[in-house]
């Protein structure tokens, strides 16, 4: 832990005054290391939802929620989204620097070599109902990789972690395309090593084995950008889950699979699917956009404006700005109907001028516009969150690796403030 020369933070409780070292951040909030609080006072901190608690030091991603800044390893998201390829950004997140030409070519080659899934996986997927949610099947599939690659499970072995990193990056797109194809009763497609990562993923998802499938570069570029936007977001719910599971020295597949489970929730990655359902509901009902916003403000049936609000961003999510522009570009280039985009923009316009949203600092988040792009590309709604998972994969891997390598890591084991019954004694059922 990098405890700083800064004045320690003091904390008074009863007749005691305690000093806790500050931990200096290179940017953003410094920390206060309170590890000795329990020992010194018998008190624990209570911070529901970890609103105020840093669980680790990290060098991967920086967010300034007030200014709407997001940087991976120091690089602004705008520069990366507009100029990079997804695998380049994955390398940056996992290894710390952008790859040079030679390194990038080697990474691409290595990932290409491992794109095939074990043939038995075809039977594995048939064990699930074909209409089961793809996130549930993806979680099981990633977890199942641990049974096929048992020589890559030791988190302390650098060689094994390196191979597991490549296997995950290589096989998860194939797995997602299999899940999508099977849901539609379509034949599964093998990877084609002559194609690039994203291009081949699109071909495996939308192509047919009896015909060439020329992938539209508009789709490749749009998906490349979206995957980069999702690639990491510091200690969000799914990433914290990956770290928590990994802190027990569980293998990387079990940890990433747990992250997929966390991501599936509608308050997290599942919001992209929920946004589309919300837009469709507004479109198909007699409700005006203003009526819907009023319903949200009145908290009727617990309705929220999906794709709005964020724990960290209290201004516009920079990823949402890029996704919004991309939604316009893609829909225009593909000549797709803009009706739902129009509803989304009206929702945004009304919400951003409304006191309810202003007072609570609620702005569009990354999920608000991405579903519209995926839909225009031809992905069914249930596939939106698996696409988010594909984008987040390098972030989860990078965070798992950083956690394992950090000598300060301990098994994640929060405390609680117990508010249940005090001791009572068993009585026979007939006397209760
Ligand atoms: N619509 C309406 N009201 C909202 C919304 C929303 N989308 N988000 C927050 N609020 C309100 C809450 O009702 C609460 O109001 P109150 O003070 O009157 O009780 C206030 O704003 C604070 O909300 P919290 O739930 O305490 O904020 P928190 O930081 O815990 O939640 C979250 C953040 C989960 C993202 C929330 O804004 C939300 O549910 N958004 C909709 C789902 C969504 O888009 N999730 C994707 C997030 S981005 C991502 O994971 C990739």
UniProtKB/TrEMBL annotation:
GO terms for biological process: tricarboxylic acid cycle. InterPro entries: Citrate_synth-like_lrg_a-sub, Citrate_synth-like_sm_a-sub, Citrate_synthase, Citrate_synthase_AS, Citrate_synthase_bac-typ, Citrate_synthase_sf, Citrate_synthase_typ-I. Pathway: Carbohydrate metabolism; tricarboxylic acid cycle; isocitrate from oxaloacetate: step 1/2. This is Citrate synthase. It comes from Bowdeniella nasicola. It holds the Pfam family Citrate_synt. Keywords: Transferase, Tricarboxylic acid cycle. The keyword Transferase applies.
């Amino acid at each position: 832990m990098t405890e700083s020369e800064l004045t320690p933070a003091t904390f008074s409780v009863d007749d005691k005054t305690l000093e806790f070292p500050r931990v200096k951040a290179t940017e953003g909030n410094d920390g206060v290391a309170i590890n000795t609080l329990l020992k010194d006072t018998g008190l624990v901190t209570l911070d529901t939802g970890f609103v105020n608690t840093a669980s680790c030091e990290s060098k991967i991603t920086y967010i300034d929620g007030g200014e709407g800044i997001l940087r991976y390893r120091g690089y602004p998201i705008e520069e990366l989204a507009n100029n990079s390829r997804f695998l380049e950004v994955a390398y940056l997140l996992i290894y710390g620097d952008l790859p040079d030409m030679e390194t990038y070519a080697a990474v691409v080659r290595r990932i290409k070599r491992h794109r095939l899934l074990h043939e038995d996986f075809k039977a594995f997927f048939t064990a699930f109902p074909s209409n089961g949610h793809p996130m549930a099947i993806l979680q099981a599939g990633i977890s199942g990789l641990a049974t096929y690659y048992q020589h890559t499970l030791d988190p302390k072995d650098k060689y094994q972690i390196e191979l597991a990193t490549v296997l995950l990056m290589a096989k998860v797109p194939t797995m997602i395309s299999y899940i999508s194809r099977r849901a539609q009763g379509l034949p599964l497609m093998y990877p084609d090593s002559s194609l690039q990562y994203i291009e081949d993923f699109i071909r495996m998802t939308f192509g047919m084995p009896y015909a060439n499938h020329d992938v539209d570069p508009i789709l490749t570029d749009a998906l490349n950008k979206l995957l980069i936007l999702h690639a990491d977001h510091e200690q969000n719910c799914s990433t914290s889950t990956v770290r928590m599971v990994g802190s027990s020295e569980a293998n990387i597949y079990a940890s990433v699979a747990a992250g997929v489970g966390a991501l599936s929730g509608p308050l997290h990655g599942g919001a992209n699917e929920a946004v589309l359902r919300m837009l469709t509901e507004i479109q198909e009902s007699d409700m005006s956009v203003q009526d819907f916003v009023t319903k949200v403000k009145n908290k009727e049936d617990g309705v929220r404006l999906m794709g709005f609000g964020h724990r960290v961003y209290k201004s516009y999510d920079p990823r949402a700005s890029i996704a919004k522009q991309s939604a316009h570009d893609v829909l225009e280039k593909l000549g797709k109907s803009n009706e739902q985009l129009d509803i989304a923009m009206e929702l945004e316009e009304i919400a951003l001028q409304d006191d309810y949203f202003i007072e609570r600092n609620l702005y569009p988040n990354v999920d608000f516009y991405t579903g519209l792009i995926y839909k225009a590309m031809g992905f069914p709604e249930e596939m939106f969150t698996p696409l988010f998972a594909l984008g987040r994969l390098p972030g989860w891997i990078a965070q798992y690796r950083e956690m394992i390598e950090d000598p300060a890591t301990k098994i994640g084991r929060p405390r609680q403030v117990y508010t249940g019954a005090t001791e009572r004694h068993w009585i026979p059922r007939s006397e209760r």
